[in-house]
Amino acid sequence: MKRLLRKYSYPPDKAEEPTQTVIQQAETFVKLGIIIIDGLARLKIEKFTSSLRSLV
Fold first, then answer.
1. Residue 43 and residue 56: Cα distance in Å, rounded?
2. Which end of the chain has fewer CB atoms at under 10 Å, N or C?
3. C-alpha angle with apex 30: 28 to 32, nearest 5 degrees?
């Protein structure tokens, strides 16, 4: 992340605070993505086990 920010000269004034904000936002998006993926995986497992139960 820091490499990309440097590549595009962000922040222009080299302030540390905006850089930390961008990094924190990226970390939050990753965490949300993991939560969503985990939720979808659980939903698929639930549907699969439910369909197995209906076969028995």
1. 20
2. C
3. 70
Phi, psi at 8, each rounded to 5°: -100, 20
**What digits encode the pLDDT tens for the residues 10-54?**
766 666 787 788 889 888 888 888 888 888 888 888 888 888 788
DSSP state of 8: T
The answer to whether 29 and 50 are in contact (CB under 8 A) is no
* DSSP secondary structure letters along 19-52: HHHHHHHHHHHHHHHHHHHHHHHHHHHHHHHHHH
Cα separation, 3 vs 19, in Å, equals 11
pTM of the model: 0.47
